[in-house]
């Protein structure tokens, strides 16, 4: 029969080895990088890009049309048709098809009606739900256009501040889920407003 001293040594070794193994597999927390780029969102080779879609998910002008054309209009519409549309503030996900991005997250922004029809909450929901979908699909990088600031008429400066605040809030509450979030702006002015929002500055 083994001695009590030998038994104690084996138990101590098991505890030490277990702690060492756990320490070896502990990963450093991921820091999410937020950045602004000025350019064409369809050229970004990320896990996902976000499309500013209409509620019918039928393709349209602006960034919506550009993403459809770059991905392949027929393929994208075939993937979107089963959803039967999407409510304002909601989002759905499809493959990226011919795009450099692996996936496209389609979200429907609010039409600006003066600010009293819940537009800020709906716009924030677009960003939040898109980020939730990215996390649900284990995506690590995502790019947003300036949702609703085109033909939907949302004022660009408050939209940029809300976009940055919503993304920051999600990242803070979900540390380690995302590595990179890009605000991809089509114009220099939009890029300036997003950079000012990231820096915490009031736009001029």
UniProtKB/TrEMBL annotation:
GO molecular function: O-acetyl-ADP-ribose deacetylase activity
Entry superkingdom: Bacteria
Pfam families: Macro
Signal sequence range: none
PANTHER family registered for this protein in UniProt: GANGLIOSIDE INDUCED DIFFERENTIATION ASSOCIATED PROTEIN 2-RELATED, MACRO DOMAIN-CONTAINING PROTEIN
Record domain Macro: where: 21-202
Species annotation: Rhodospirillum centenum (strain ATCC 51521 / SW)
SUPFAM superfamilies: Macro domain-like
The protein's name: Macro domain-containing protein
